């Protein structure tokens, strides 16, 4: 569990935020000691050490994050954020030396979206989209220059799963160049591809049009705008089809992101969309598909649970894999768009989670491509369990293996390939 601590007291802020005014929430000088005392007391309340703990506390909180995101959600400048950590870090450790401090999550979707080359990363860092990359490369460098003020790093994955690998690689390279290594978290992850954001979904492109996220390209702008229009309008003739696509993409996205986070050796991943965000459905697609990515149905006003969506069951499928895995490796596929991950579980079971990146899929059934999986001579058959994309149960098939290999039609919807002798119950 992560507890996010924000300096949000307007009465103590250097420049209280107001409508159309970001302000600056860093504490006034006369309140800096009070902020540190607040942090220490909050950590003490939830650290589970038996001293001044919350009555009835069942599980300790050991990871404390500061501010929601290193973007527009932190309106102050980078120097102030370093100063905030200088106040917070010793306060956390005074309450609980074992507690971990994590700075606000980095948001760099426009830099790492779509598996860019190292050259593309450098070009994007030099000219980022200011709507997304609110903090400059120099601001992030300043944060990374102060490893004495944090125990783990956090980045937010608000785009396609393709951003996770290059973001992780870059952060580790940056830390290594400074002579240290820290665990990395994904502190906030949207389920599926958001396709558009930080501006309305328009056709044709306008000056204020949103950022198109992978796997969408500029050629797909009108398709994306039409999809988001259909999602938002319950009377649209394509609304039912758009919602069905959203349910399937959200479920598949949960599996893809969790699997990649595991193989990349990340400390953890927090899935952000447990419920829909109705107000953002009114932004002309400005938040992309994210408002419809909730895992549950619930009453918007009472928030009473009314049911579960496929993404909820898909999370259960992948949780069965990651809750007790001993090792995970990415297998070599036919090309870089093949995602094949072999997990060895602590009870001896073996499962390969596989999918294929075949570009943007919106209409109809997802496109497929045949991939040959080498499963080994000891397996005469495998149990195929597709990610739940409708209803509550996966499609299951037993398939015979020929000469230790299996030809499988893969799409963007992950399939769990449970090897013989290690079959999922």
**Number of helical stretches of at least 4 residues:** 9
Number of strands: 20
Poorly predicted tracts of residues:
none
Portion of residues in beta strands equals 15-25%
Output the radius of gyration.
23 Å
Spatial separation of the terminal alpha carbons: 29 Å
Characterize the largest beta sheet: strand count, sense, and whether it forms a barrel. Answer: 6 strands, antiparallel
Shape designation:
globular
The neighbouring-strand order within the major sheet is: 13-14-15-20-17-18
Helix content: 25-40%
**Arithmetic mean pLDDT:** 94
Order of helices and strands: EEEHEHEHHHEHEEEHHEEEHEEEEEEEE
Secondary-structure-derived class:
alpha+beta
Key structural traits:
20 strands; alpha+beta; globular; 425 residues; 24% strand; 6-stranded antiparallel beta sheet
Task: Tell me what the structure shows.
The protein has 425 residues and is of the alpha+beta class. It contains 9 helices and 20 strands. The chain is 28% helix and 24% strand. The strands form 7 sheets. A 6-stranded antiparallel beta sheet has the order 13-14-15-20-17-18, covered by helices on one side. β6 (153-157), α6 (164-177) and β7 (184-189) form a beta-alpha-beta unit. α1 packs across α2 (78-95) and α2 packs parallel to α5 (137-144). The longest helix is centred in the middle third of the chain and has 25 residues, at 239-263. The mean pLDDT is 94.
């Amino acid at each position: 569990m992560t507890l996010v601590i924000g300096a949000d007291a307007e009465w103590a802020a250097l420049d209280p935020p107001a409508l159309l005014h970001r302000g600056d929430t860093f504490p006034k000088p006369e309140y800096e000691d009070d902020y540190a005392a607040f942090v220490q007391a909050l950590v003490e309340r939830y650290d589970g050490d038996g001293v001044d703990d919350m009555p009835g506390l069942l599980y300790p909180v050991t990871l404390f994050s500061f501010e929601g995101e290193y973007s527009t959600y932190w309106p102050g400048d980078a120097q102030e954020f370093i100063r905030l950590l200088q106040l917070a870090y010793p306060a956390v450790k005074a309450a609980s030396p074992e507690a971990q401090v994590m700075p606000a999550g980095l948001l760099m979707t426009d830099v790492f979206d779509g598996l860019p080359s190292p050259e593309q990363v450098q070009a994007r860092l030099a000219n980022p989209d200011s709507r997304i990359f609110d903090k400059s490369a120099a601001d992030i460098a300043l944060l990374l220059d102060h490893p004495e003020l944090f125990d783990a790093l956090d980045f937010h994955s608000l785009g396609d799963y393709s951003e996770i690998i290059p973001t992780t690689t870059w952060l580790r390279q940056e830390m290594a160049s400074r002579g240290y290594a820290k665990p990395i978290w994904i502190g906030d992850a949207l389920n599926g591809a958001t396709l558009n954001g930080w501006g309305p979904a328009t056709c044709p492109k306008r000056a204020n049009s949103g950022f198109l996220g992978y796997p969408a390209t500029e050629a797909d702008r009108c398709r994306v705008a039409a999809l988001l229009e259909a999602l938002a309008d319950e009377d649209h003739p394509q609304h039912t089809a758009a919602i069905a696509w959203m349910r399937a993409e959200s479920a598949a996205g949960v599996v893809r992101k969790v699997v990649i986070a595991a193989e990349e050796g990340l400390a953890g991943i927090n899935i952000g969309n447990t419920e829909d965000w109705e107000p953002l459905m009114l932004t002309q697609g400005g938040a992309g598909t994210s408002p419809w990515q909730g895992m549950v149905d619930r009453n918007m006003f009472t928030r009473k649970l009314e049911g579960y969506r496929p993404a909820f069951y898909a999370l259960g499928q992948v949780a069965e894999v990651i809750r007790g895995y001993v090792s995970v490796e990415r297998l070599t596929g036919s090309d870089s768009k093949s995602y094949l991950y072999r997990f060895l579980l602590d009870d001896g079971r073996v499962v390969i989670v596989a999918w294929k990146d075949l570009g943007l899929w919106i209409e109809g059934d997802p496109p497929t491509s045949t991939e040959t999986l080498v499963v080994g001579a000891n397996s005469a058959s495998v149990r195929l369990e597709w990610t739940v994309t409708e209803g509550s149960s996966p499609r299951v098939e037993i398939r015979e293996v020929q000469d230790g290999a299996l030809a499988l039609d893969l799409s963007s919807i992950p399939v769990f390939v449970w090897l013989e002798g290690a079959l999922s119950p």
